[in-house]
Write a structure and sequence with these properties.
The chain is mainly alpha-helical. Helix content is 45%, strand content 11%. It has six helices and six strands. It has helices at residues 12-17, 34-43, 53-73, 81-91, 116-132, 165-180, and strands at residues 20-21, 28-29, 99-103, 106-110, 139-141, 150-152. It has a two-stranded antiparallel ribbon. Helix 4 packs across helix 5 (116-132).
Length: 181
């Protein structure tokens, strides 16, 4: 059975990092096959791609570099030059470019089918924008001890504690309720 992809990060890069879940416990790998990577790309709205084992391995390596750099941003891991260089290398690659076409005497947008490399370049660029921009101060890790998903806290008071109120937040409230009884 294929694991569901959580899209709770608020940014492409954080949703991509979330393809490895429960990092502190059993490590739930959601990118087990090239088809899983293809499915994640489609669900993330980044296009429809074909992938192979090499693309899958490259995606996992990029994911872990982005994760480590995010932890470094949170002052929970050292900054590693190799991770910075890897993300920069990916971000420097070509990305898919939309184009205009004329159909029935009207302009229409045409999006090319991206390659796996182009999609990973988009993810790396989003990571750079996130980790070096104003939202970097709003990155949080879910407070559920079993969950390690990261998200951008865009809540009004900047007090969001869980990746999702419907999952981790609800479980935390149930635990609090049970301990009160």
């Amino acid at each position: 059975m294929t694991a569901a992809f959580p899209f709770v990060g608020g940014r492409i890069a954080l949703n991509f990092v979330g393809t490895l879940g429960k990092r502190s416990t059993e490590q739930l790998e959601r990118l087990r096959t090239p088809e899983d990577l293809t499915r994640w790309v489609e669900l993330a709205g980044l296009g429809s791609i074909s992938t192979d084992e090499a693309d899958l391995e490259a995606a996992r390596v990029l994911r872990e570099a982005l994760y480590t750099l995010t932890l470094a941003t949170l002052d929970r891991a050292p900054l590693r030059r190799a991770d910075v260089e890897l993300v920069n290398e990916w971000a420097a690659r070509e990305t898919p470019a939309p184009a205009l076409k004329i159909r029935a005497d009207a302009l229409r947008r045409s999006d090319p089918q991206p390659s796996a490399s182009e999609v990973l370049a988009v993810v790396a660029r989003d990571g750079i924008e996130l980790l070096s921009g104003p939202e970097s101060d709003s990155i949080r890790e879910c407070e559920d001890p079993a969950c390690t998903l990261l998200f951008v806290d865009s809540s009004r008071g900047r007090r969001r504690r869980w990746c999702s109120m419907s999952s981790c937040g609800a479980r935390a409230k149930m635990r609090t309720l049970r301990s009160a009884h």
